[in-house]
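Q: What would this chain look like folded?
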Amino acid sequence: MNFLLRNTLNYPISLKIMPNYAVGDIQGCFDELEEGLELINFNSKKDFLWVTGDLINRGPDSLRVLKYIFSIKKAVHIVLGNHDLHLLNCFFNKKKLKKEDTFKSIFDDKNVLQMMHFLLQQDFVFSKKIFSDNGILKVGMVHAGIPKMMSLKQAETLSKLNCLKLKKNPKKNLMSIFNKKNANSSLHSFNGSINFFTRARIVDENGFPNFIYKGNRKNISPNFVPWFNKKNQITKDLDFLVFGHWAALQGKTNLSSFQALDTGCCWGKELTFLRLEDQKRFIIESKQK
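A: My prediction, written as structure tokens:
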């Protein structure tokens, strides 16, 4: 793809578009990630890979996924998901792994500290302008959701402040995030915003989340709606937002402004890639039968 600009002499300048591909929750499914990268002919020297969070856990190859993403770190944009935070909390606070956790191999690796600090460098909300055949697009990314009255500037500012706080004292602040008493804090607070960014699916009429619900849209209580169904301030600041986390959506929001990419690869369904320039999807069938 090429994008035409004109200089001050009004001569057209052709710019080669550098493709941007977003991928939904990988969750340790390295074989599917590798197959998808081959399908889209991904080249880390000229393309960008956007990862919607939850790089690890549930799938069989969390270490391989994390090592690969680290190896191409200059070509990736990442937002942290709830499973990534769980990994960090288990590491820094020496928490016992749950029966269903599948990332022990990361802790056994000699470069585990380097990988943990790599994750601590990542955002909760990210956006970038990209070139497309239809002009410049402003695209955002979050793992789960963004509160309805929060602008992009507010969300990204909170993301940066949260990351700085997390890096300054990961042990203390991860413990705070996972304290259930703090889950429903103000949506502009450290705990409240991180929980919304990484865990939200449905919200009440005031925009406050219910973190328990994991089902599909048909079974949502009448008092709640998907977080993206509210009149979201974020749509005024972006052409569209990509997110993961909610596998039960099966990649469908019915809204062009919100692109859901978690399609349940670790549950035996699919891994979805989205080319951001034209929103074309590439689907890899899961091997996790």
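The chain has one domain: 18-285.
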